[in-house]
Amino acid sequence: MLRICRRWFGGILAALAVGGLAAQEDTPPIDDALASFYERATVAPAKTSIYVGNVKLTMKPFTRNGDVYSSTYDAKVFPFFFYSEAGRISITITDEDLRSLAAGERVYFNGEGFDTSEEPRKIEGHADPADERSGKIKVRVWVSKNIELIFNTIYRFDG
User: Fold this and answer.
1) Where do the domains of the chain lie?
2) Residue 24 backbone phi and psi in degrees, to 5
3) Contacts of 91 (CB under 8 A, 6+ apart)
4) How far apart are CA 158 and CA 138, in angstroms?
5) How many beta carbons lie within 10 A of that of residue 36, not counting itself?
6) Model confidence at 144, in pLDDT bands (50, 70, 90)?
7) Comparison of pLDDT for 83 and 10, the residue scoring more
8) Rounded to whole angstroms, how far apart are CA atoms 113 and 118?
9) pLDDT digits (tens, 9 = 90+) for 122-140
10) Pairing of strands 68-78, 85-92
11) Which residues pair with 49 in a beta bridge?
12) Would you give the distance in Å from CA 25 to the centre of its chain?
């Protein structure tokens, strides 16, 4: 069980960024004022239970370059500290997805995270905006074909 839990740490963080769907070719880019507003996103630490303990994830603020949000993470496992790890994440979020969030619409997303050994994790979830700056995220992380873990946290755009 601990081995399985270790595999999902990097992937969970990919989903904790605000969500992205496939870009549409004919969608105009967001204007410069709006682009600077969405330049940076902060995600609150997330915590979930595992078989005999819990995992706390903390991330540095996500920064946007083009359509890609990127960050690094730390995953602390209690009481099994030797399974703790760090890694990097990135997720594509289109301008259309950002417009949907600003309009108060749910956005579905998927992404990947990578631990220091570069092992990817499958991520799916959705973001529900509370307002144009912040909202809630529900993330599903598949650590194997049959095992998924669920995290709930919040995000905030800091631009």
Assistant:
1) 2-157
2) -105, 135
3) 14, 15, 17, 18, 19, 20, 68, 69, 109, 111, 112, 123
4) 20
5) 12
6) low
7) 83
8) 8
9) 778 889 999 988 999 987 7
10) antiparallel
11) 54
12) 24
For residue 63, the model assigns a pLDDT of 92
Q: β-strands 62-65, 46-50: how paired?
A: unpaired
Q: What is the DSSP string of the chain?
A: -HHHHHHHHHHHHHHHS-------TTPPPPPHHHHHHTSEEEE--EEEEETTEEEEEEEPPEEEETTEEEEEEEEEEES-GGG-EEEEEEEE--HHHHHHHHTT--EEEEEEEEETT--EEEEEEEEEESSSSEEEEEEEEESSSS-EEEEEEEEEE--
Give residues with Cβ within 8 angstroms of 11, minimum separation 6: 111, 112, 113, 120, 121, 122, 123, 141, 142, 143
157, two tokens: 């755009």
Q: What is the mean pLDDT of residues 37-59?
A: 88
- Is 103:30 a contact under the CB 8 Å cutoff? no
The token duo for 93 is: 């979020």
Give CA separation, 64 vs 38, 42, 45, 70, 140, in Å.
8, 12, 19, 7, 23
Q: Rounded to whole angstroms, what are the CA distances from 134 to 27, 73, 96, 117, 121?
A: 23, 20, 17, 32, 25
As given in the structure block, the two tokens for residue 159 are: 């631009």
* Domain 2-157 -> CATH class: mainly beta
